[in-house]
Design goal:
The chain is an alpha+beta fold. About 30% of the residues lie in helices and about 25% in strands. The chain has three helices and four strands, in the order βαββαβα. A four-stranded antiparallel β-sheet has the order 2-3-1-4. The radius of gyration is 20 Å and the shape is elongated.
Length: about 110
């Protein structure tokens, strides 16, 4: 994982939907599975994902002056921290182990 650039979630706000679409077309930003643009005080906002090495290119894009790009979170760091919370092995390997927690018990 150390060789791959980190992924950063950014909030992008444009004055209108056409400016936002142009920025997305030009930069090839990843909008995730369920992209929902929402109206904001500054126009129309959307969360997008960039690899760190492509974020600077997105800021330098021809359409970048039409949008405001705000980095929100380093998704890769967050994922690695969450992965550390998961234990190794099978917690139900013992014959007398019983499921517990918030999920439905079947």
């Amino acid at each position: 994982m150390g060789t791959e650039p980190a992924v950063v979630r950014c909030h992008v706000v444009a004055e209108n939907t056409e400016a936002l679409r142009e920025f997305l077309r030009e930069t090839g930003a990843d909008v995730g599975c369920h992209a929902v643009a929402r109206g904001t005080r500054g126009g129309v906002g959307l969360d997008v994902y960039f690899r760190e090495d492509r974020l600077d290119r997105a800021r330098a894009a021809r359409s970048a002056p039409l949008v405001d790009i705000t980095p929100v979170e380093n998704v890769t760091e967050n994922w690695l921290a969450r992965r550390e919370e998961v234990g190794g092995g099978d917690r139900f390997a013992a014959r007398d182990a019983r499921p517990h927690g918030l999920g439905r018990k079947e």
